[in-house]
Amino acid sequence: MWLTQLLERNRQCWPDRTALVDEQRSVTWAEFHDRTAELARGLAELGIERGERVAVLSKDRIEVLESYFALARLGALFVPLNHSLAEPEVAGIVERVGAVAVLGEAELLDRHPRLPESVRVRLALDKPAFASLGTLAPARDLPVVADTDPIAVLHTSATTGQAKGVTVDSASFRAIALGWLVMARPTDDIVMVNCCPLYHGSMVVSLTYMAAGATVVLMPGFTPQRALTAVERHRATHMWMVPQMLRFMLQAKSSRRTDFTSLREVLYGAAPMPLDVYAAAVERLGCGFRQVYGMTEVGGPFVTLGPDEHPAPGDVTARIPCGRVVPGMSARAVDREGREVPRGEIGEIVVRGPGVMQGYWNDPGATREITLDGWTRTGDLGFVDDEGRISLVDRTKDVIIRAGQNVYPSEIERALMTHPAVHDAAVVGMPDEDYGEVPLAYVALEPDADASATELLGHVARLLAPYKRPRSVEFIEQVPRNPAGKIIKKLLRV
Q1: Which fold has domain 173-395?
Q2: CATH class of residue range 2-145
Q3: Can you give the residue ranges of the AMP-binding enzyme C-terminal domain (predicted)?
């Protein structure tokens, strides 16, 4: 089983190398391997069996990954939970997957005193009972877990509706990791600061670099100062973040005093990279950049654009391509009937390969809906260029059809973001009697900036064709985004 093999190999190759670091402690690969086996026996002593689901409710810390690996070794499914969810949302997920246990930080568990009847074990990761779990457990045979056995239910980011549970197996993690590492060509001295949460599909990036023997630095939550401190303290070679995090980090006053000389590569994904942020990052950080395009349903990161292919900031006219699909996976752009469209023509990106999920948890209808002739639909509109690089245009559900013409909100958002007073922008469709739908822009201004709706509309008019221009601009304090940096447009639609 992939996760177990990963630990066994790394213990054999680098037993004394640091595997994981958080704000409390660090562990070597040998310690991580041994604790995972010990914890698997302890969880078995608590009555957790193969095939059962265990929810994990915690900010990022070493015990989270210890739990994931131990549960996978036991053949139980780990179910990461977004720790910012409200009590009914957590209870709903726990009930839908039929979780028999919830592991989490004590403070977070206290916020959820009422859980479904299926839960028979509640255990705090930051209390002595968890630390001692398994230390006195007798030696016992653990199940043989096949690569095709499900080991996790990862929930989608739910920007348009209720989060769906994505059922994945070890074969998925392995396929993505091996394909990705062929493209990324990692060295064995990587220290990666992980700015992204471990409760959704973005965690696969961390698992992938762990497979290469990297040291992964965890933070209990992103703040610019935490990230900057981690880079200096641990002499980080890599960082994994979303573009908004990069923007906030560069805006922090302490970034001017931070030593970035160890940094080789910034991995970014989940949302388009604003060109002004990219230009500022290239100048300030002096390192390479790697784009990550992924989706929980297809195993996580399946397309990448490496540092050697990133354009110079002045050469970017509209968007930075996502890159090429990793070996072992296939992707293409198709029309509504599932036919592949010519190079350069916009279609929906579909994916197939061993990284694809087994299906949505207990939801065959939704699984069928996302499947098209054996391919998994991403819901992203994009095209493949003559060199095999994929570029994204927008989401299929976000396209505004104005009098029969397709209007892509992301294009308008990029145009608005070129105005110096605009900090962030989101565009949605609003009903119109004459045209069916027209764009409506929501804008958050930079601190102390001043710009009128008329000024912004005039700015966009100089950049876009008349049918693409927003009907109006509404000012808001902050564009709603989820932790992955994606705009939550369901909160904005009129």
Answers
A1: Rossmann fold (3.40.50)
A2: alpha beta
A3: 411-486
